[in-house]
Amino acid sequence: MADRGRVSAYRALLAAQVRAQTQYRFSFWLDAVSSSVVSLLDIVAVLVLFRATPALGGFSVAQCLLIASLCNVAFSLADAVVGNIDTMRQYIRTGRLDSILLRPMGVLPQLVFGDFAPRRLGRVLQSGLVLAATLAWIDPQWTVGRVVLVLAAPLAGAVIFASVFVAGSTVAFWFVESGEFANAFTYGGRDFTLYPISLYPGWFRKVFAYGLGFAFVAYYPALALLGVPDPLGAPAALAWCSPLVAVPAVLAAALVWRVGVRHYRSTGS
Description:
This protein is mostly helical. It has helices at residues 2-21, 25-49, 61-82, 88-94, 96-102, 107-114, 121-138, 144-170, 179-193, 202-211, 219-226, 242-263.
């Protein structure tokens, strides 16, 4: 009964947030369209680079677009679900987190559902359309495995990005003005993932691609969809490891979040 009550409370929080943000329809749709256009600029940036070079890291324009499209879908999904968590420092600075902690519900679900931004769903739709158009351009040889991969990879990538969002926001429990530090890993990770990892120097690639798992968001799944070997010599089986990387990412983020909440001692306001 208690679990059912919590679910009803989260549903009420989400419904109230959606109603509040869609009260002014023109403003809502303007925000949704403008955020979609801004997100589309990431794809345009990839195309602009090909005006100066015929290949990036050994990949053609269509192949790079597939990597960027997979990344954009994954990031848009994560941003739509937990992107608002990067305002954690404002909750701590203003003391609003104290009131959330007093409620008999999970802290993270309250933050996610209580500040949900439906306008961000426009980015998800836009990035999905770009991915579909890119796949139509590339026209890979479809198999059951590739269909499963093109559906599962963005979901696993979204879980990896969401884990980074949550872990990055947790830093605010120790350093309130940690926004730029967290953004270096969330939005910086997105920018890293937009391009083939063969572009980057060795130490940078080891930290972001393998240490934080961003190579498994788009790069390796794209290699499998394209049917091309990794120029870095990694085994082809890595293309199917995105869910296996997402699971420890979630566990690590959950552990960091739990430690952060227990460490929090209120603002004293």
